[in-house]
Design a protein that fits this description.
Layout: E1 2-5, E2 14-19, E3 26-29, E4 34-36, E5 46-53, E6 58-60
Parallel strand pairs: 1-3, 4-6
Antiparallel strand pairs: 2-5, 5-6
């Protein structure tokens, strides 16, 4: 299990999660903000990137 708490956001900030091995249980949280496109796991040799958008006060998944 891996738990990731998103950092304090600011304009143009992005969070990237990457792994060489598969992650089968992943928990994401961003206190006071919304995460769109949250994931519960990550395939081996892959990544997910979440840029922050201040207009929506939210993180959106890319990748």
């Amino acid at each position: 299990m891996l738990a990731v708490v998103f950092p304090t956001p600011y304009v143009n900030r992005s969070l990237r999660i990457a792994s060489r091995s598969a992650i089968t249980l992943l928990t994401l949280s961003a206190p006071g903000r919304t995460i769109y496109g949250t994931i519960a796991g990550l395939a081996a040799s892959s990544y997910a990137e979440f840029p922050y958008t201040s207009d929506d006060n939210a993180w959106f998944r890319m990748g």
